[in-house]
């Protein structure tokens, strides 16, 4: 089974950047961390700069679990998909 962990079609669309709070154009993106793949809403500046505080945001495992819900999978399935990616 192949799961696209980068799929954001079912993720919530946010109106505010989750890193800097900018209102306006915010894009839903995914990012990987030690605990898995998470989705987040980022403004253009935060997407481009990739500051350390963006990655610190990912330390919150709850965001990874939320993204699993958006994908319709559980954390065990995400872990298996990540392992499968590593073996390719």
Summarize the structure.
This protein is α+β, with helices and mostly antiparallel strands and 88 residues long.
Distance between the termini: 13 Å
Multimeric state: single chain
Number of strands: 2
Which H/E pattern describes the elements?
EEHHHH
Quote the beta fraction: 15-25%
CA gyration radius, whole angstroms: 13 Å
Which regions have little confidence, pLDDT < 50, spanning 5+ residues?
A: none
Percent range of helical residues = 25-40%
Largest sheet: 2 strands, antiparallel
What would you note in describing this structure?
The chain has helices at 44-49, 52-57, 61-71, 75-86, and strands at residues 26-33, 36-43. With 88 residues, it is of the alpha+beta class. Strands 1-2 form a two-stranded antiparallel ribbon. A hairpin with a 2-residue loop joins strand 1 (26-33) and strand 2. The relative contact order is 0.22.
Keywords summarizing the entry:
single chain, 88 residues, alpha+beta, 4 helices, 18% strand
Q: Helices and strands in order, then pairings?
A:
Layout: E1 26-33, E2 36-43, H1 44-49, H2 52-57, H3 61-71, H4 75-86
Antiparallel strand pairs: 1-2
